[in-house]
Amino acid sequence: MPLNRLFWLISILLMLLFLTLIGRIVSSEWSAYQRSTTSIPAIKSFQLALMVEEKLTAERGPTNTLLRQKSDDAARELARLERLRGASDQALASLRQALQAQAAPWLAPVIAHVKSTERALAAARIRVDFLLAQPTPQRDTEAVGAAVAMMAQSVDAIAPAIAALSGIAAQADPQFRDGLDSARLTSSLRNIAGRMGAIFVAPVVAHRPLTAHEIYTFAKLSGQIEQLYSVIELQLHAYRHKPAFKTALDTVRDQYLEGGLDLLNELLAIGRHSGNYGMNAHELSARYVPRMAAIPHLRDLIVEEMLARAEYRSKQAAYFLLAVSALAAVAMAIFVLLMWVIRQRVLRPILDATALFVSLADERLGTAIPSPRYDDEIGAMMRAIRVLKARSLDKIRLEKQREAMIAQLQTLSDTDFLTGLLNRRAFFAQGEQQFGIAQRYRRQLTLILMDVDHFKTVNDQYGHQAGDQVLRVVAELCRRNRRKVDLLARYGGEEFLLMLPEIDLSQGLAVAEKLRRAIDARHFHLDDGVMVKVTASFGVAAFEQDNNLESLIARADGALYRAKNGGRNTVVTCTQEVASTPCAPSSVAPLHGVGGVGE
Predict the structure, then answer these.
(1) Which of the pair, 500 or 16, is modelled with greater confidence?
(2) Residue 205 falls inside a structural domain
(3) CA within 20 to 30 Å of 280's CA: 192, 339, 393, 400, which one?
């Protein structure tokens, strides 16, 4: 294996190994960065969904009160209900906008749950407003219960969205799974606390004792409260060292588990025997609801902690990814620089020296000779090789100049000096080849012989320079109306030959007629300002059974002869005839205004 190929093979293998290692590191850090950036909007959406659940739960309180409230407190509760409805609508709108802004396909089911919640809430509000429009005594108890149930269902409708967002956030970064679960449990604790308080709204408004079902429901929810708090406290044990979490947990225990539940237990003891609770629904709400405030505060603290961690991890991942990428780029640059130094200082001088000796031996002088870096024996050898190469290049350059001069002389010998067309000798040299192809393969070939009419009169009347100018213009017209494969030559004097390969007689006639019209329509402006008008006669012959090119030219010349005798400025054709007969009358076809190719 050549040394150069071996060097590149080893370099490529090392490069691939290096790039693989760098790629794995960068890919790992990029995945960490993507997880961190994806988890932030997921946690924010999760937080908004929890806020929606809280606002819907808060809206249930005055709704339940108003459905059973007497008219003296209705105005105050209605105003409160309108404020809470506005807060619920704002929370739902914020959640929907946040989800739609992310434009992620996996959020489509969550958006559907949000819209379902909005529809359920709208239906529940319609039922509630319908009942509120009726006087309190006339409200059907079952209808009120159905409206309360519909409001509860609207709160439950957001639960699938919360669960889905929690799963998305946990999938984005599994380290937040415990925090997400704790936040959901805390939100559930807030909802259960609200439901426990709602149990006493109807009895307090009606001043009646608790039913057996209400007592059973209270006992069941009270047990769930204790269990949820225990699980939350256990999951947040790792955060006990943070003062904010410890304070929040202690506040939930002191304000709600002890203060709030104690209030409800007192009402439970009264409700078992009588309906004399000593307060109305508004006073119940004023005493109980503030004690639940510690629960959403703990929930928000958990979510804010997750957001802070996610943003910190995102920044750290971005910085680390940037650092790794920069180090990888620097390492890559150092590796490439090392390979370049080895090639330039070690391998390339060896390869250059080898190439120079081989090129000199094979008389290939295209190899560049590097300038010697040092004044030593190798430098002297390089200078000597440079001198030898320069002398060889001079010899080659002289040979090329000689060949170019020969080619130029050949071109000049084949070109008519006046018109720039092929001369007669060059036409026969190239025309014989085309005629041989047509003769051997029976291909179509048409020859046009053209003569400028009354050209001697132009020379005699205006001078030979004017005649030369007319010939050059005629030659240019012929050149414009021919194909690249056609042979165009000055046959002699004012005669021109045009050979058309792969053209039959009818097409050749059309070409000749087109040339005739072009010359006839041309006004020749001479150098002295005089304008003259000339015409041309054409003889056309197509290859049939001709033995040689001279025979084909002779038939075209016979046709031209008859065109001249027929009045000039015309096109005449001739087919194959008996030897020594230029063109019999039966084969003559004078043309005037023939259409054809190019017209």
Answers:
(1) 500
(2) yes
(3) 192
Query: 285 and 156, same structural domain?
Result: yes
Of the three residues 399, 414, 429, the one that is the final residue of a domain is: 414
At 572 the three-state DSSP class reads strand
CATH classification of the domain holding 440:
3.30.70.270
Long-range contacts of 388-395 (CB under 8 A, 24+ apart): 388/360, 389/360, 389/365, 392/363, 392/365, 393/365
Higher pLDDT: 4 or 533? It is: 533
pLDDT (mean) for 384-395: 74
> Looking up tokens 């609508």, which residue turns up?
89
How far, CA to CA in Å, does 394 sit from each of 364, 369, 403, 510?
Answer: 14, 16, 14, 54
Residue 379 belongs to some domain of the structure: yes
Per-residue pLDDT, 576: 43
Active site residues: 494
The count of domains in the chain is 3
Write out pLDDT tens, residues 141-167: 888 888 888 888 888 888 898 888 888
Determine, yes or no, domain membership for 363: no
Rounded Cα gap, residues 516 and 511, in angstroms: 9
Q: What does the alpha-carbon distance between residue 417 and residue 80 come to, in Å, rounded to a whole number? A: 110
Six-digit token string for 100: 């739609």
Q: How many Å apart are CA 356 and CA 90, to the nearest integer?
A: 83
The domain of 400 spans 369-414
Indicate if 466 and 405 belong to the same structural domain.
no
Q: Is 198 exposed, middle or buried (0-12, 13-18, 19+ CB in 10 A)?
A: buried
pLDDT at 280: 82
> With a threshold of 0.85, does the pTM exceed it?
no
Looking at the fold, whether 13 and 113 belong to one and the same domain comes out as yes
For residue 539, what are the β-bridge partners?
Answer: 449, 572
Specify whether 184 is located in the same domain as 254: yes
Residues 391, 438 within the same domain: no
Domain shared by 66 and 156, yes or no: yes
Local confidence band at 349 (pLDDT 50, 70, 90 cut-offs):
low
Q: Enumerate residues 6+ apart whose C-beta is below 8 A from 285.
A: 61, 62, 65, 197
Query: Quick check: 500 pLDDT over 90?
Result: yes
**DSSP annotation of 530:** -
Are 478 and 556 part of one and the same domain?
A: yes
For range 381-390, the mean pLDDT: 73
| Other Cβ atoms closer than 10 A to 378 | 13
Point out which residues pair with 489 in neighbouring strands. 422, 497
Domain's final residue, options 295, 321, 347:
321
CB burial readout 170-187, b (16+ within 10 A) else e? bebbeebebbbbbbbbbb
pLDDT at 595 over 50: no
The answer on 433 and 397 residing in a single domain is: no
pLDDT confidence tier of residue 594, bands split at 50, 70 and 90: very low
Say how many C-beta atoms besides its own lie within 10 A of residue 93's C-beta: 14
